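TA notes. Do not distribute before section.
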Amino acid sequence: MSAMNRRAEPSLSKPPAAADRREDLRGALLYTMPGRAIVIGLAIKLTVFLVGLAIGRVPAFFTVVDTVAGLAVAAGLVYFAFRVLVLAKRRLLWRVRRKLIVSYMFIGFVPAFLLVAFSLLCAFLLFYNFSSYLVQSRLRALSEQARFLAQSTALEIQRAGGRDVANILTRRQAALAAQYPGASMAVVPFDRACGTPLAPAPSIAQTSDFRLQTSGPWTHVNPAKAVPAWIDCSGFAGVLAYSHSRDPGGSAPETHLLVRGVAFPDSRRPAYAVVADLLVNDSVREQVRRETGVQLRSVASAPPQDVKDAQPLTGRDGGDEPTPDALAAPGVLSRLRSPMEYRDWSTGATGTLMMTTALDVPELYDRISAAEGSIGRTFGQGLLLVLFVIGVLFLVIEAMALVAGLALAKSLTGSVHELFVGTERVRRGDFTHKIAVRSEDQLGELAQSFNSMTASIEDLLRQAAEKKRLEEELRIAHEIQMSLLPQGPLVMAGLSVTALCVPAREVGGDYYDFLPLGDQRVGVLIADVSGKGTSAALYMAELKGLVLSLSEIHASPRALLVAANRIIAHHLDARSFITMTYAVIDLRARTMTYARAGHTPLIYVPGAPACGATRQVQILAPDGMVVGLKLDNGEMFERHLVEETIALQPGDLYLLFTDGISEAMNSRDDLFGETRLGHLVETHAHLPSEELRERMLREIAAFVGDAPQHDDMTMILLKVDEVGVGAATISEELAEIAR
């Protein structure tokens, strides 16, 4: 219900009691830090602009100031943009109907849109990579064809014995140019040893003196004058690049492609090499388009960063090669860019060209399907038809889902609105309002639950009031119980006494007291009633009255505990018992006599011994049964109870505690333990009583950590200062504390 009330707040039209002056635009700009940053930044930028107009330039210092002002304005605008987005989200999405519509958009429409976009992207990547592969594979096939032509020409020259080279070269080039316009060939002198030839051949190096001979236009680059050292005797077939500028006056050079094949005769030491160049011109590009459905439009090379990088050949200026981008693009995908490797003719290094292609998807699809024959093409068209039908069905289903989603949103928001009206009535205190149940679905069940809730709210309010009353009574009981304990530490001549009691709940069953016995004698009692809560606190109050009475009758701790057990055993619940330790300190006799009725041991640290020996802690645990067990008439309790007497020495330290101290547990259920407690007291026994108590509490808290307190914690620290000095005033001080 509180959540519904919080959601109702934006719809309230009542003005606030005190309007915030930062709500309007003027206040936001003048009374907020981001607004002031925008105003001051704009003022500074305007000032810098005016200064620049006045003096004709902007000084360097003003430039820095202007930059800082721009950053301040940008930061302020970002802040306000974020605030506007948050406010728009809060106002626009407050209604559940809008939230459902937005949810549907993200659950239904957006995934569908992403699915379509993903499919289109996958198709694009498929055709993009496939078209790049087709073009590059066609260029590789063309380069292999150039090498084959060079190889056949070299073998023909070899069979002719190196004679009539010009005629052979001209005839071969003419046949090649008929298929590849602009093709050029050259015979290049070569003098390098190769391996053993495949077949014996006459040596022609001695009968002919080969020199550079060319055939063809060679309008693209200068003819190759030699074979680079990186090309071995197996020849070369690859793609090269060359660039030339149509306008030597300043236009950027254009990059073009050529495929070059290099071959040698079959000889141990070839005297020549044949070089065949095929230009990737309009004719070749049109041939590639007819064969693949992809048109190669242009290529571009990045400027080399190092002299070792691959560089295109320098073309002849003023060539008649047309600009590839001026060619018509057959398809809508006319700017596809993909990388392609080329070789540097001089060094053999590889470089990368960016190849721009134009892709006509229907034509490419026709090329692919045509390779499968008429049956495969018909099957592919059938698949396309099925795909189209599925797409139409997908759109129809999305439209139906949109209509159903809007109708469902209206139904849901109507029920939510009725619940909102009902909660408003309940908030105003009208618990008689009922919501009409119009359906038998979950929303109808929710309306019935709301009606049941309003019917039981008054009972819940009564229970809350009763709980509050009980909590107040427990608080008063806690204050009363704390008042039953001695208030503050007891410091007297010869003896320092400090104590602490921390109940695990509002009230607890731990109890300690200081009893004036007269004649420089003090009674010290610590007890722990089994269990926690109200019952333990009542037994603790009963025990206090009983001990106060018995302490005036019995001087011996053992006799007091025996009498207390005989009386309490008749009043305690069968499931309850009490552990006690009672000690009588006689400052005149310098002794402490005590008895332990099933209570935790007493930790004793003697005063500093002679010769600088260390103080060793002692655990004192004389026999004794717990108080209140109905085993017999008290004979067993009296038989097992042992009373001991200890001589008091200056510096002696005694610690009496309940099991809530030694059994404090951390989150892993590990106990603090009496051993750790004794070591802690032994280590810090030199501290004053109050400081030692606080040190112990800190150590226990650090050990327990975030684990809850599961039992009451009570301790008494007795420290002997100077025994016998001023002891006559002890009884008077105890009587004052008791009052």
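Switch to the second chain here.
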Amino acid sequence: MPIPDSPLLSLTGIRKVFPGCIANDAIDLDVQPGEIHALLGENGAGKSTLVKIIYGVLRPDQGDIHWNGDLVQIANPAQAREFGIGMVFQHFSLFEALTTLENVALALPREDHDKLRARLVETADAYGLALQPDRHVHELSMGERQRIEIVRCLLQDPQLLILDEPTSVLTPQETETLFETLRKLAAERRAILYISHKLEEVRSLCDKATILRNGRRVDDCIPSAETARSLAEKMIGKRVESVRKRATTQQGNIGLQVSSLTTHSHQPHGMDLSDIDFAVRGGEILGIAGIAGNGQIELMDALSGETGAPLGGTIEILGTDATHLNPNERRDLGAVFVPEERIGQAAVADMTLVENSFLTASARMKFSPNGLIDWNAVGSFADNIVRDFDVRTTGVSALASSLSGGNLQKFIVGREMLQEPQLLIVSQPTWGVDAGAAAAIHEEIQRLVSAGAAVLVISQDLDEIFLLSDRIAVISQGTLSSATPANDVTPEDIGLLMGVRHTQQEKTKYAAA
């Protein structure tokens, strides 16, 4: 019998404690050379803390790290890279005003630019990650930006590559290209530690999975021998019911009507919107798909009123012209908004959950007879959000910054949906949320629609778009395709539309098709 490989990376008894929280508790993990190893768990399970320890961002309180059989301490990311550990974070660390080559050069020891250019092109081509060294990052799609991050890691010759939610900004076609690259790396005996909430991807790509729950390792399995549901149940520790798409119901009046919307982006290197037209009726979900950076943020800001009146066009909310109304006035009409950016836009980091619950729901809160805020009512509302949306927190007096990203997302979505709006506009509703929480959010969205609300969902997750939407449109380069019934298109059709600028002529063609 062949002798099994010694682990490339071996963690033993890793423990990390933060005030009021045991993030990692006696975790053991072995990663073999040439293995694509998934690290799975619900929000707050300890995945991010563990990979930050591996990459030297955090130091463990207890436990040992062995690298190639040697006991090591990883003091910082620079030392991790010296060992041969690379990491691509979910949120890219690129300077948009610099070129691809300049961004790569910043992360590497000083080297002649011509030699570095040649190495960059050779490495990118070898792994099917085509890059143009002299293009500025602000001109690139999210998929192209991710390629820069991966190639930048590969130029450091890593033996272990850590990827955090790597396909969250990719089209189906770009995802398949990434998988081909990862399989090539594994064939070279490099190891991949892969974090994802997309369980079907994990099943098709990964050789092994380690499951974390509440900071502890609870299981190891072969993903291909599991179903997405069984993986989710291992993560959560209880049965997960599949979300079924609701039956189409009788549609009501128009909840949101957007006509010829044209804006100038307020984002650095953002995307202007041009001639956007669509409508959403009560009892209907319109899904807007697209790759990040194609105008989603600008569309959300225009609809919520955060950037003021647009350059051109009109926005009607529940029959009222809201084009020149501010965000609170739009909410007073019966609309609620869930933006993509959690901290700073949807929530204030150093405010408590009680205070954050009041931020957007003040008009629906009870006031005392003297006109002061009834904080008992606000506290009760915050308690309801935490209970109904299973927000894992030490209590409603906890700061928003103390929650994991997924738990904060559940709180923000719950805050808006418990106001029982007539119009919900939500961007990336389950971004970074585990399978169980995503299912709960999807159920609540469908419940709201079944009660007659109009819902606009902006999402990069095509599975989510197809699960929820009655009709689907695609945003690309600041333009929007005509909306098509979800049953009439495939994910591949939508993926192809993601790179097209939708002129009026093309919109007519799509509508006719």
